[in-house]
Q: What sequence folds into this?
């Protein structure tokens, strides 16, 4: 059982150190930001807590005081929970608006430090095994100490969960919203750790024998901390994920627009601000956002240049994109042959497809280009 607990504590510690190292890369540009300072403090305390969790049972005494490593573990865990609470508040509010709340949490933590230390000093009699503080005991002082400690862990779980969801609904920042929801999930799992740990704590006093179920708190703790570590770094790497996804989406659109653009360019070379190089395979990767805008503009210019050759009597029906592709193909053939329809579309807008946003414009032109490629 102890071996499994050490493995689970180690997993929590590894995820904590990974999150800490990742956030260290932001230090140079963020070191004056209060939220960043609190975030780093939270991650450091998280690392300390779970490192001590993995080592505390094997450390009989520290500085000559038996079980002192367990007290330091518990105090670090209290500080970690308070720091996480402050971090969430700073993410959602300017520091000037929450100074009183920050002060209240810090004072509460200081008082709790003193109370836990006093109870530990009273209960830590000579010969008291480390398992009494790590698991549970019939001793009323140790029992009070452990229950007070676990309550100090459960309260921030509840407050963080209750704050995360409203904050997530109110923020316009996509990755902050995802972060808050992830932290809410982590808070729920860590509350389950607190609940199952409370059962473990009182089981010796009540004469319960939990057997293999006694490992449940460690499982919930490891799972919750991995999720929290993932969530705490999400605002940093999330934007990069979005950028990569946006780049891939733009590249697919840029490539999909090529068949239509190439035919229009061959018909009206003047539409291109920068004519393609000889043998250009259209696989350039740089300045993609700019080049996608240029491609859309050039397609619209080429389309407009074809309007004198588009038959107004040819009314699209059915698949709009395919109908527009056929009209463009017929107009290109008419321009090549020099035949102008009697009723052309030399005036007016682009029918019903003057898109309201650039993304909608790209989506529509991509459909037309893909239909055109099928015709070709």
A:
């Amino acid at each position: 059982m102890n071996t499994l607990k050490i493995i689970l504590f180690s997993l929590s510690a590894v995820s904590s150190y990974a999150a800490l190292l990742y956030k260290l890369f932001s230090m140079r540009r963020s070191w004056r930001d209060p939220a960043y300072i609190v975030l780093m403090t939270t991650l450091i305390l998280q690392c300390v807590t779970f490192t001590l969790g993995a080592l505390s049972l094997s450390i009989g005494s520290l500085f000559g005081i038996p079980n002192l490593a367990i007290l330091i573990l518990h105090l670090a865990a209290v500080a970690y929970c308070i720091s996480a609470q402050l971090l969430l508040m700073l993410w959602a509010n300017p520091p000037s608006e929450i100074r009183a709340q920050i002060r209240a949490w810090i004072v509460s933590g200081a008082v709790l430090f003193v109370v836990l230390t006093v109870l530990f000093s009273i209960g830590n009699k000579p010969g008291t095994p480390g398992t009494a503080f790590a698991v549970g005991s019939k001793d009323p002082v140790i029992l009070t100490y452990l229950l007070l400690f676990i309550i100090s862990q459960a309260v921030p779980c509840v407050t963080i969960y209750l704050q995360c969801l409203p904050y997530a609904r109110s923020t316009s920042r996509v990755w902050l919203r995802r972060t808050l929801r992830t932290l809410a999930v982590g808070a729920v799992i860590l509350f389950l750790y607190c609940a199952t740990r409370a059962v473990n704590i009182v089981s010796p006093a009540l004469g319960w024998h939990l057997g293999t179920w006694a490992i449940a708190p460690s499982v919930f703790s490891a799972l919750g901390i991995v999720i929290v570590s993932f969530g705490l770094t999400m605002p940093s790497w999330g934007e990069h994920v979005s950028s990569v996804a946006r780049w891939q989406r733009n590249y697919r659109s840029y490539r999909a627009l090529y068949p239509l653009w190439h035919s229009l360019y061959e018909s009206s070379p003047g539409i291109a601000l920068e004519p393609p190089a000889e043998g250009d395979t259209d696989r350039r990767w740089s300045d993609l956002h700019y080049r996608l805008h240029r491609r859309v503009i050039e397609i619209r210019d080429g389309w407009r240049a074809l309007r004198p050759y588009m038959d107004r009597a040819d009314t699209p029906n059915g698949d709009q994109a395919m109908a527009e592709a056929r009209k463009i193909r017929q107009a290109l053939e008419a321009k090549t042959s020099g035949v102008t329809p009697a009723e052309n579309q030399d005036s007016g807008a682009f029918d019903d497809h003057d898109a309201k946003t650039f993304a909608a414009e790209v989506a529509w032109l991509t459909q037309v280009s893909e239909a055109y490629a099928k015709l070709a």
Summary: Strands lie at 61-62, 65-66. The first strand starts at residue 61 and ends at 62.
